[in-house]
Specification:
The chain has ten helices and 16 strands. With 303 residues, the chain is an alpha/beta fold. It folds into two domains: 2-151 and 198-298, Ribonuclease Z/Hydroxyacylglutathione hydrolase-like (Metallo-beta-lactamase, Chain A); 157-192, no CATH class. The strands form three sheets. It has a seven-stranded mixed beta sheet with strand order 6-5-4-3-2-1-16, with helices on one face. The chain has a seven-stranded mixed beta sheet with strand order 7-8-9-12-13-14-15. The chain is globular, with a radius of gyration of 22 Å.
Length: 303
């Protein structure tokens, strides 16, 4: 699993920071969380292309989080995309996409579906599911969590050989959690040769929001949390009024949720040097990084 921060700014793009967009690539499939203006150009700069993109998740209907959709949809149409694409987001998203297609007068040969949601389980596929919950912003906004299924435990080679399982395809079946039949008629169950199951990975995207219990719950035990950190603590009141978080507020969410790593994003243009944000957050939660445009973060499998 790899996360690429395509756009890490908030509200107004700068030379250093494009508007919000985060790509997650897992087993050859790409998911996009938010789609700020110029996202398709950032995808080219990151070298991740468009062909693997399967689903776009929109957090809310503020322009800096979805103004890149028209350009991205047109680009894929001009590139003769033929794979289905789904867009998931809050109520009002269908109208936005409909008006976009009518206004820009482009016809997509690929199947394009738009799903409006308010929370709960919103998507799933082989080995994963995506959950959403309402956050605490100035308008209705959704946080998302991509959660992998647990993986089978580690394979005990010596135990398998002792049980008489021949090396080859049967090993693979047992590792995938399937029982196998031996030539002598015995059936070997996976639990006989596998250790404890290993938890799958969890990625959480929470832009824009004030720190809130809903996001803490969504992010519980996450491997990577991308969280709103628009302001430093000196602007805590501005953050509260505008429905955003400070860096230290994001760190408190990460600490309470027990996440493994926090990635601060949606950074205000006022911060030319983000060290103040990093220092404030690390005082609360040391495993914090300030996101930069086109940063790539690996999310390793759990042992």
């Amino acid at each position: 699993m790899k996360v690429v921060t395509l756009g890490t700014g908030g509200a107004i793009p700068t030379v250093k920071r494009a508007l919000p967009a985060t790509a997650l690539i897992r087993e050859g499939k790409m998911f996009l969380f938010d789609c700020g203006e110029g996202t398709q150009l950032q995808m080219r700069r990151a070298g991740i292309g468009f062909g693997r993109l399967a689903t776009i998740f929109i957090s809310h209907l503020h322009g800096d989080h979805l103004a890149g959709l028209p350009g991205l949809l047109m680009t894929m149409s001009l590139l003769s995309r033929d794979k289905p694409l789904q867009i998931i987001g809050p109520p009002g998203l269908k109208r936005f996409v409909k008006v976009t297609k009518e206004t820009f007068r482009f016809h997509s040969e690929y199947e394009l579906t738009v799903q409006e949601i308010e929370g709960g389980r919103v998507d799933q596929g082989p080995g994963y599911l995506v959950e959403a919950c309402p956050m605490d912003h100035s308008i209705f906004a959704l946080g998302y969590a991509l959660v992998e299924e647990d993986r089978p435990g580690e394979f005990d080679l010596k135990r398998a050989l002792k049980l008489g399982v021949p090396e080859g395809p049967l090993f693979g079946q047992l590792q995938r959690g399937k029982s196998v039949s031996l030539a002598d008629g015995r059936v070997i169950q996976p639990h006989l040769v596998l250790g404890r199951s290993r938890k799958g990975r969890k990625f959480v995207h929470a832009l824009d929001t004030r720190p809130c219990p809903a996001v803490v719950g969504l992010a519980e035990d996450a491997d990577l949390l991308v969280h709103d950190a628009m302001f430093a603590q000196e602007m805590a009141e501005d953050a509260r009024q505008m429905g955003h978080s400070t860096a230290s507020g994001a760190a408190r969410v990460a600490k309470e949720a027990g996440v493994r790593q926090l990635l601060l994003s949606h950074i205000s243009q006022r911060y030319k040097d983000e060290q103040v944000l990093l220092q404030e957050a690390q005082l609360v939660f040391p495993q914090t990084v300030v996101a930069r445009d086109l940063m790539s973060v690996q999310v390793p499998l759990r042992r």
